[in-house]
């Protein structure tokens, strides 16, 4: 029972312990470019595009991921400050990011 959280005490009443939200750590490159990588490792041959290098403190990554997924017409996710988009259409993704005022480079093979 040492891991239990105290919710109510008969002496003081309801106990509210506010836990701070975890900040998303994102990898930001010094040159200011956002990189689009292709990855198949650990995905049974299915390819995904990774959007890396967007500062989480300046941009809402969750909202940006939703926008990218809807404009691409594909699924995806946001994991550890990296936006994953299913499929392999990096040129289209690059054009969409450039219209959103990002400097973009296609990285990897």
Structure description:
The chain contains 2 helices and 7 strands; from the N terminus they run ββββαββαβ. β1 (8-9) and β2 form a beta hairpin. The protein has helices spanning 61-72, 90-99; strands at 8-9, 13-14, 34-39, 48-52, 76-79, 82-86, 104-106. The model has no long low-confidence stretch (mean pLDDT 83). The protein is of the alpha+beta class. The strands form 2 sheets. Strands 5-6-4-3-7 form a 5-stranded mixed beta sheet, covered by helices on one side. The chain has a two-stranded antiparallel sheet with strand order 1-2.
How are the elements arranged and paired?
Layout: E1 8-9, E2 13-14, E3 34-39, E4 48-52, H1 61-72, E5 76-79, E6 82-86, H2 90-99, E7 104-106
Parallel strand pairs: 3-7
Antiparallel strand pairs: 1-2, 3-4, 4-6, 5-6
